[in-house]
């Protein structure tokens, strides 16, 4: 479990994080969302013990990153925008090098991760020849080598094309399911977070504005639903058009009426994805 209790971090006269409290349950994938400068990366660095808070306490599995830094770092794996690889070495040599630093047997674990992350095809090539997606996958393997209980990801899909992004997120889900790792992930691409996260924490200017599952956030911030219908002959309209449902509770009746009174081919909610919720939170909480 990760716990923040009234944490404040300042850089000179700038407050990067103010009175932040949160609890992240074991095995959860939690997304940190917010605009640039919200404090997301600061949280990751505080967890690693790279920064010291001015106020408050932080614990990972009951251990302080400041007082028990080496043990906390043994329990955490971190992947940032730069995967931290030596480009003149092969992927396998990189993983062996980091395994030696952790003081763990290398070969069996490398083979396990190569299977999960589909690394075999390029593991024995120089890392400098890798695509960005390959480097991200090898970076995930490096972060998971020592079987951490917590995985900290800061913009892990930056620079990836859609296929590479899909692959990395798929591998992340697989690692979470297979090894039960707790994941804290920062990303500006909300559609990506929606595919993997079970919970979200919203930050703005260093302050936690809200948190919850997507359904919880929808119930709090989505006041009415914009629904796109594709139908023939409903209330004088055909093709694609948008109607409004005052609430989730009234949506089934609206769909049933449209189906009874026309040929209804498709119905799709337009404004309850994570991005829509994000902008509504910013509007109401800023």
Provide a descriptive summary of the structure in words:
One of its GO terms (molecular function) is ATP hydrolysis activity. Residues 2-230 form the ABC transporter domain. Keywords: ATP-binding, Nucleotide-binding, Transport. InterPro entries: AAA+_ATPase, ABC_transporter-like_ATP-bd, P-loop_NTPase. It comes from Paenibacillus pasadenensis. The structure is a single chain. By secondary structure, the chain is of the alpha/beta class. The chain folds into two domains: 2-218, Rossmann fold; 223-270. 37% of the residues lie in helices and 29% in strands. The chain has ten helices and twelve strands. It has helices spanning 40-47, 69-75, 91-102, 107-117, 132-144, 162-179, 190-196, 214-221, 251-261, 274-285; strands at 2-11, 14-24, 29-33, 55-60, 76-79, 150-154, 182-186, 199-204, 207-212, 225-234, 237-245, 263-269. It has a six-stranded mixed β-sheet, sandwiched between helices. A three-stranded antiparallel β-sheet has the order 2-1-4, with helices on one face. Strands 11-10-12 form a three-stranded antiparallel β-sheet, with helices on one face. Helix 4 (107-117) packs across helix 5 (132-144), helix 5 packs parallel to helix 6 and helix 8 (214-221) packs across helix 10. The two termini are 29 Å apart.
């Amino acid at each position: 479990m990760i716990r923040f209790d009234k944490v404040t971090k300042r850089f000179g006269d700038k407050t990067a994080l103010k009175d932040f409290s949160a609890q992240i349950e074991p095995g959860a994938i939690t997304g940190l969302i917010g605009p640039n400068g919200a404090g997301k990366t600061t949280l990751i660095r505080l967890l690693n013990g790279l920064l010291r808070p001015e106020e408050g306490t932080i614990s990972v599995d009951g251990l302080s990153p400041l007082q028990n830094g080496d043990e906390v770092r043994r329990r955490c794996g971190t992947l940032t925008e730069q995967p931290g690889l030596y480009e003149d070495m092969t992927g396998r040599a990189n993983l062996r090098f980091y395994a030696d630093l952790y003081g763990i047997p290398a070969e069996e674990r490398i083979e396990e991760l190569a299977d999960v992350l589909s690394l075999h095809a390029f593991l024995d090539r120089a890392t400098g020849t890798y695509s960005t997606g390959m480097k991200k996958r090898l970076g995930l393997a490096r972060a998971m080598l020592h079987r951490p209980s917590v995985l900290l990801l800061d913009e892990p899909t930056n620079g990836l094309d859609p296929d590479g992004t899909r692959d990395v997120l798929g591998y992340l889900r697989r690692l979470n399911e297979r090894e039960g790792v707790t994941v804290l992930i920062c990303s500006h691409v909300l559609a990506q977070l929606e595919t993997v996260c079970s919970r979200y924490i919203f930050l703005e200017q260093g302050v936690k504005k809200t948190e919850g599952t997507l359904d919880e956030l929808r119930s709090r911030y989505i006041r009415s639903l914009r629904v796109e219908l594709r139908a023939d002959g409903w209330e004088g309209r055909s093709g694609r058009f948008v109607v409004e449902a005052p609430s989730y509770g009234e949506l089934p009746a609206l769909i049933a009426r449209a189906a009874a009174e026309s040929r209804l081919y498709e119905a799709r909610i337009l404004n309850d994805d994570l991005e829509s919720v994000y902008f509504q939170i910013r509007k109401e909480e800023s």
